[in-house]
Design the sequence.
């Protein structure tokens, strides 16, 4: 967090201070990636270290395309429990600690948000005390930013947070096409994740017919993300939807190795699960 002067205002660093902060010592031992979650498998069937501490990632998908089911699986996989029965593609990393998981829903009202949060418990099989669900639909943009600042820097959770999930990131700006607002929010993400020593998973809408997130905000946040995860409908050659209960998950951009495509479906109990092939499961078949 920035140092404050006697007037409680941020102290402006000199160029020399900034140089010292930014200098990279090539003789310093290279620290191993602190992997929080593996996401998918590469072309050699090795798990992909897609979610690491100090970075942020983006889940990009059109509206109402099971984004919340994907993020529920990610949160549940990090907690553990019974989640392995629902997904082998999303798996706990060696960097997992007993840190908190903050799950912030900015879009849904109290009823739907609570149902989504309860889904994590159902996947895990029990309540996890360090999973903190928050719903901020009625709050202003400024209040949401202030809330996250407080969580990272001042709350009882500070210094002991592993994951913050924000569904959806567009509600942290007034206009997703405001270039300056998008750039400033991307800077916020870098500070929150770096200074908080945590990973943020951002849910953002996809531009129809293009491999990009919506607005200048989408451009600003995805360009600096560690991993971009695309979710897509199952359609025929003419673009007609042929499967409502299954979506394809595809690797967009990633700093490390790419993961192979896989699929996410929802079973008769309303719980998500992943599988390798679209036609691997017959309708209503549950793999557990």
Sequence:
């Amino acid at each position: 967090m920035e140092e404050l002067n006697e007037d409680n205002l941020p102290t402006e660093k000199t160029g020399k201070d900034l140089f010292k902060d930014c200098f990279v010592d090539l003789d310093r031992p290279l620290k191993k990636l602190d992997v929080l979650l593996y996401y998918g498998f590469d072309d050699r069937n090795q798990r992909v270290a897609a979610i690491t501490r100090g970075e942020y990632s983006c889940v990009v998908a059109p509206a109402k395309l099971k984004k919340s089911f994907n993020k529920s699986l990610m949160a549940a996989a990090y907690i553990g429990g019974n989640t392995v029965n629902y997904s082998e593609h999303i798996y706990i990393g060696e960097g997992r600690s007993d840190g908190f998981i903050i799950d912030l829903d900015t879009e849904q009202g109290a009823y739907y948000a609570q149902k989504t949060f309860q889904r994590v418990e159902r996947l895990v099989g029990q309540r996890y005390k360090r999973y903190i669900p928050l719903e901020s639909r009625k709050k202003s943009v400024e209040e949401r930013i202030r809330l996250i600042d407080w969580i990272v820097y001042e709350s009882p959770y500070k210094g002991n947070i592993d994951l913050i999930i924000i569904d959806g990131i567009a509600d942290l700006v007034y206009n997703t096409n405001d270039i300056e607002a998008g750039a400033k929010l991307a800077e916020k993400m870098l500070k929150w994740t770096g200074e908080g020593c945590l990973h943020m998973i951002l849910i953002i809408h996809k531009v129809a017919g293009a491999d990009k997130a919506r607005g200048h905000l989408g451009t600003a946040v995805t360009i600096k993300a560690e991993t971009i995860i695309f979710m897509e409908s199952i359609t025929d050659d003419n673009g007609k939807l042929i499967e409502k209960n299954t979506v394809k998950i595809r690797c967009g951009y990633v700093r490390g190795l790419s993961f192979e495509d896989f699929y996410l479906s929802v079973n008769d109990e309303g719980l998500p699960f992943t599988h390798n092939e679209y036609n691997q499961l017959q309708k209503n078949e549950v793999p557990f």
Notes: Helices lie at 15-22, 67-79, 110-124, 141-153, 179-196, 215-222. Confidence is low (pLDDT under 50) at residues 282-288.
